Amino acid sequence: NAGVTQTPKFRVLKTGQSMTLLCAQDMNHEYMYWYRQDPGMGLRLIHYSVGEGTTAKGEVPDGYNVSRLKKQNFLLGLESAAPSQTSVYFCASSLRDRGWDQPQHFGDGTRLSIL
Amino acid sequence: DQQVKQNSPSLSVQEGRISILNCDYTNSMFDYFLWYKKYPAEGPTFLISISSIKDKNEDGRFTVFLNKSAKHLSLHIVPSQPGDSAVYFCAARRAGGTSYGKLTFGQGTILTVHP
Which residues of A touch B (CB under 8 A)? Predict the structure, then answer.
């Protein structure tokens, strides 16, 4: 059981380049999320999706775009990478909230460096 | 505006002793709280949670206490083991359909358990 899989694990980009981070989950979860983790900041929500074909902004959405064309996949795009986007990116998924505990399940992260 | 705060960046404990990790929050709309554990190069994994209708929840060596009036929660690990050494994140969310399970994380506390 793979759970949440993130691709790639590491990447180095030059300022201005673009790239897409892929997240795939095999748990049939409705909700998916993208976070970034920076030193001393915890995890901050970038964008999220509550179902196939839907996306919404989180706390720090600027400079990122997302798409969810299939229920199991959630893509995070950087159109023009900036050094401030150097971070560790985590994808997570969860079942739809039915009023009781539905913890998010995380992938192992993508470490992205922008030079 | 940091709505969830973990004011201790690190904690060092001897094996067999109790570890107490603290978390404060400011948003009174939060009514579900979670603790995640994170090892290096891995994603956060769910540890334990508590609903605001309770003041205590236990799971083996892990107990979470919630003091709603003080907007404070704590995670107790008894007895602490070297394998507990990790970063611990406190997270909070609002219940209900429109929250979509979104989590607000604290900055994390690095726990080191010495043999």
Answer: 4, 31, 33, 35, 40-45, 48, 50, 56, 58, 90, 92, 94, 96-97, 99, 101-109
Q: What angle is formed at CA A113 by the lines to CA A112 and CA B3, rounded to 5 degrees?
A: 65
Cβ <8 Å between B41 and A41: no
N-terminal to C-terminal alpha carbon distance within chain A: 36
Number of Cβ within 10 Å of residue A80's Cβ equals: 10
Which are the contacts of B76, defined by CB distance < 8 A and separation ≥ 6?
A: B18, B19, B20, B62, B63, B64, B65
Q: How many interface pairs between A and B have CB atoms less than 8 angstroms apart?
A: 65
List chain B residues with CB under 8 Å of A105. Answer: 46
Rg of chain B over CA atoms, in angstroms?
14
β partners of residue B10: B110
CA-nearest of B67, B65, B71, B70 to B27 is: B71
- pLDDT cut 90: percent of chain A above it: 87
Instruction: Flag whether pLDDT at B85 surpasses 60.
Output: yes
Pick the closest to residue B65 from B49, B85, B44, B45 (CA basis): B49
Query: Is residue B70 over pLDDT 60?
Result: yes
Q: What is the pLDDT of residue A98?
A: 62
Contact across the interface for A97 and B100, Cβ inside 8 Å? yes
What phi-psi label fits residue A3: left (phi over 0), alpha (psi between -120 and 50 degrees) or beta? left
Look up residue A73 and give its amino acid.
N
